[in-house]
Amino acid sequence: MKKSILGWVALCALCGPARADVVTHISDDFSDGLRTKTGATDTNWWRTNGTLSVVSGQLEWASPGTFQAITGDVPTSTLVQAGDTIELTFNFRFAAAPGTQASGFRFGIYNQSGTAATDVAASTDNDKGYFANISTGATMAHQVRRETGATLPIIAGTDFTQIGANNTTSPGITGTLDQNASIKIIKTASGVNIVASVNGTEYLNVVDASPVTLTFDEVAFGSASNSQTLLFDNVVVTFSAVPEPSSLILVAAGGACLWTRRRFAFKKRRDSEAPVG
Ligand SMILES: [Ca+2]
Ligand SMILES: [Ca+2]
Ligand SMILES: [Ca+2]
User: Which ligand is closest to the CA of 126, given by its number?
Assistant: First the structure.
């Protein structure tokens, strides 16, 4: 009997990859007309420069200026197990066609480094994380960068290192059409894998063996030298945690107990129903 239970536990623990639990941290469609948090999956939005307001159900960042950012607060998430993933997806568009700029549009996932974001303040200067650096206009030189928070501002400064090679084949962002983009950070056995996509096409897929952080509580959007107004909508941040091996064993052990109890009950019933003599 003991042998069968152990076998059952081992089988359960090994039967394929465990399904991750996906939690939606943020799902902001700006339908409340506010850039402040009013619901469970809503959030607060801040800017380092320019004017930030909700216009016609979209977050409008007017006159962003050069190398400026907007940020959104995210519930703290830590990547622990290989496979744990935090992902940002959103819609965006330029109000006027952006100029040719190698790092024209930026988006990333960050750690606030203990000083929470507020408007037009130095509190986001020390934030660290990863961002995708997507070119605008005719340029095609897209990159992923790791930022340490050592020099101001967030999503710019001189405190970043390029991870992996440039993508020089995917198109830059042009025109004023609505676009969709995403960036996700996936824990690997010894580092992180960063994947960024634009309009369903994977632009960047790189691995960083020296993560600057595994804890994230912020997303950021940046404008380099484009001064055009940007509009954002349907910002979604999800966190997927792969169950820890210990919880898998517990689930398997629970299943084994249930199986044993059922088997015992069945045997007892069979014995009591057996003809006597
Ligand atoms: Ca909307
Ligand atoms: Ca900070
Ligand atoms: Ca910086």
Answer: 2
Residue 25 C-alpha to ligand 1 middle, in angstroms? 17
Place of tokens 């025109």: 175
The dihedral through the CA atoms of 117, 122, 126, 130 has a sign that is positive
In the CATH scheme, what architecture does the domain 19-244 have? Sandwich (2.60)
Q: How many CB atoms lie within 10 A of CB 201?
A: 9
Ligand 2 geometric centre to CA of 147 (Å): 13
Tens digits of residue pLDDT in 1-27: 444 544 544 444 444 556 789 999 999
Cα 5 from chain centre: 39
Instruction: Give the tokens for residue 5.
Output: 């239970």
| pTM of the complete model | 0.85
Q: Give Cβ neighbours of residue 10 (< 8 Å, ≥ 6 apart).
A: 252
- Cβ-contact 221, 230 below 8 angstroms: yes
* Surrounding residues of ion ligand 2, Cβ less than 5 A: 112-113, 115, 123, 126-127
